[in-house]
Amino acid sequence: MKIAYINFYSISNRYRAGALITDSSTRPVEFRITSDLNIDKLQEILYGEALQEVLYKEKFTVQLLKSMQEDYDIVLIKEKNLMSIRQEINKPVVHIQKFDQFMPLNRLSHKIINIHDRYEPLYITVNKEDEKRLISISHFLQEMYRNFNIMEPFKRIENAIKYIMENSLETERADMCIR
Questions:
Q1: CB within 8 A of 76, min separation 6: which ones?
Q2: Which residues neighbour 23 within 8 Å (Cβ) at sequence distance 6 or greater?
Q3: How far apart are alpha carbons 147 and 143 in whole angstroms?
């Protein structure tokens, strides 16, 4: 099973997103990154709190996922407002976050733990369309989490975007496919 991770990075009103497909041992299979999107002060004022949601969902995430050459089975996201991309990509979208004991549990969510206590407990949530797949997704991620930190690829994407932005690398160079 392959996982598509999505993450974002911004600095000085410059925004970018990256998508990383990994195998079940979190080894990279394909990486894509968007070009810089510069937001001016007027756009920032007019969009207000909705700015990141609009950028991340409408400008970045769906386009990135559709540009991937490798197939993937699920998408892992840290931003809950991206759950609605499910309708556009027709793949399970899984919101993943640190487990909080005060978080309400529901039928669309599961707790994932590392049996060796190397990593903190996580909480996954799927869309209603994937309710019947929640158990299999949960088992797959639970099995991965035994040996690999499934949150760590998010940091890789952020670090890659930061590296590319700081070193002014061309986007074409940032698109890579590892087979």
A1: 3, 4, 5, 6, 94, 96, 150, 153, 154
A2: 2, 29
A3: 8
Bridging pattern class, strands 37-38 and 122-126 = unpaired
pLDDT tens across 36-94, in order? 777 888 887 888 877 777 777 777 888 899 999 999 999 999 988 889 899 888 999 99
Contact 167, 36 (CB under 8 A): no
pLDDT score at 134:
93
Collapsing DSSP to helix, strand or coil, 128 comes out as helix
Question: Rounded to an integer, what distance in angstroms lies between the CA atom of residue 82 and that of residue 60?
Answer: 11
Mean pLDDT over 97-105 rounds to 81
Name every residue whose Cβ is closer than 8 Å to that of residue 82 and which is 6 or more positions away in sequence: 6, 56, 57, 61, 93, 95
Nearest to 130 by CA among 98, 64, 83, 78: 83
Cα distance between residue 152 and residue 25, in whole Å = 11
Query: What mean pLDDT comes out for the span 17-23?
Result: 95
First to last CA, the chain: 15
Q: Whole-angstrom Cα distance, residue 34 to residue 15?
A: 9
